[in-house]
Amino acid sequence: MRRLPWALLLPLQLVLLVVTRAPEAPVSAPRSLVWGPGLQAGVVLPVRYFYLQAVSSEGQNLTRSPPGQTLFKVVVKSLSPKELVRIHVPKPLDRNDGTFLIRYRMYETVIEGLKIDILYGDEHVAQSPYILKGPVYHEYCDCPEENPQTWQKTLSCPTEEPQIAKDFASFPSINLQQMLTEVPKRFGDERGAIVHYTILKNHIYRRSLGKYTDFKMFSDEILLSLARKVLLPDLEFYINLGDWPLEHRKVNETPGPLPIISWCGSLDSRDVILPTYDVTHSTLEAMRGVTNDLLSIQGNTGPSWINKTEKAFFRGRDSREERLQLVQLSKENPQLLDAGITGYFFFQEKEKELGKAKLIGFFDFFQYKYQVNVDGTVAAYRYPYLMLGDSLVLKQDSPYYEHFYMALMPWKHYVPIKRNLGDLLEKIKWAKENDEEAKRIAKEGQLTARDLLQPHRLYCYYYGVLQKYAERQSSKPEIREGMELVPQPDDNTSFCQCHRKRPSREEL
């Protein structure tokens, strides 16, 4: 059996019980596989995570959750009995395909290290026990790795991100003086949603341009989190906190486009794209009040494929006219489609005609076999979560995109539908008549999303954008008039002693 990557080491405290069901072929604890970034002490994330693949005694990977009551146990404790640390460990998530996702959030730093026992009955699973030699830092420990290449290697960051390469192809050089002159005038007016950042000596400074900059809490949060983990390059840039991408100049125009950084891109804009504030925030706040995040969704995908309701499903606000059309189609074809608007803002006059649907928990979406993804004001930010479920996604053709769309292909990872939804019913019928093919596309999409949307990959992506930007600056970034320091959050309740070599001010 080929070993999966990341098979290294991991922590946790508490005894965890994973309820699985005994398979037709019994689970072999030593043959089962354990891997993931949470098995490495050097991978510091808000929530650490790793995976477990149940393998039979014949060496076959189990592909479904087997019946019966069996117990996986995970025990995590400090290597030193003198170190007592707080670690929150929810129940492992059963992904319903023979694999399990185990998560934990550390609230203190461990100096000596951690020991993780993973047991199936009384037997150790895979290479258990796993030893994480300390120090193991928690999320709020301000202890950046001084060598970015070492940090990227530890996280197994991709050597190239196609979307980053494409975004910066328009900007072989970045003229900061031009940015300083033009951005406030073009985009920072009364209705602006722009934040001007400077990162200098791994400190974050900013000033807001315009009235609608409350979402800076999200960009602040991820930049501070990155700065605690790795030494960031010095750079000066503008983030657009609004929905729509801003820069529509063509490369051959004079003056040319400016590298505005946005959450969402479009076919007719030149903005540089970051992962959306939604997936960013859910990654940072996972297991701290956020219920929908890129990990939790994987263990809450509803019934198995064969037991899902054979209809397409949609719930959402009235942020695009096609969503209203979707509800009308649902009224006319209830046997194929269950669609409803949960809140009216843009088309309030339509509420009486179309009705208002009750809110439904996102995990309950996956009671249905097919999910309809229709744009909101821009790309629908629920799309990554839909892809991580095990329903077939019917995706509306769209000029808008998020950072990971380039890796997805129609008919391989999702089923495309026309912008005007003219072929939606036809595509639902096709899925019902071609159940095995629909299931295969759903699974391929899910597996690809699991890889692309791992939380550590988001950190890699953010750093990649900042790195590429910094390389192209034609002058040195400065702390401008009106900028304020964005301080690291206080974490006086947690122990954090940084053991990395701190660069001197001269090195910085």
Q: Could you please say which CATH topology of the largest domain applies here? A: Rossmann fold
| CATH homologous superfamily annotation of the largest domain | Glycogen Phosphorylase B
The SS-based structural class is: alpha+beta
CATH class placement of the largest domain = Alpha Beta
Which percent range fits the helix content? 10-25%
Give the distance, in angstroms, between the N- and C-terminal Cα atoms. 47 Å
Question: Can you put this structure into words, describing what you see?
Answer:
The relative contact order is 0.13. The chain has helices at 148-154, 162-168, 176-187, 216-229, 277-284, 321-332, 351-354, 383-388, 424-433, 435-452, 455-472, and strands spanning 14-20, 33-35, 48-53, 70-78, 87-88, 93-94, 99-106, 113-120, 123-124, 130-133, 194-200, 203-209, 235-240, 261-262, 265-266, 272-273, 309-317, 337-343, 368-373, 392-396, 400-401, 415-417, 484-486. Helix 4 crosses helix 5. The protein has eleven helices and 23 strands. With 508 residues, it is α+β, with helices and mostly antiparallel strands. Residues 498-508 have a biased composition (Basic residues). This is Protein O-glucosyltransferase 3. Residues 1-22 form the signal peptide. Keywords: Endoplasmic reticulum, Glycoprotein, Glycosyltransferase, Signal, Transferase.
Summarize the structure.
With 508 residues, the chain is of the alpha+beta class.
Write the layout of secondary structure elements.
Elements: E1 14-20, E2 33-35, E3 48-53, E4 70-78, E5 87-88, E6 93-94, E7 99-106, E8 113-120, E9 123-124, E10 130-133, H1 148-154, H2 162-168, H3 176-187, E11 194-200, E12 203-209, H4 216-229, E13 235-240, E14 261-262, E15 265-266, E16 272-273, H5 277-284, E17 309-317, H6 321-332, E18 337-343, H7 351-354, E19 368-373, H8 383-388, E20 392-396, E21 400-401, E22 415-417, H9 424-433, H10 435-452, H11 455-472, E23 484-486
Parallel strand pairs: 14-16, 17-18, 17-19, 19-20, 20-22
Antiparallel strand pairs: 1-4, 2-3, 3-7, 4-8, 5-7, 6-7, 8-9, 8-10, 11-12, 11-13, 12-23, 15-21
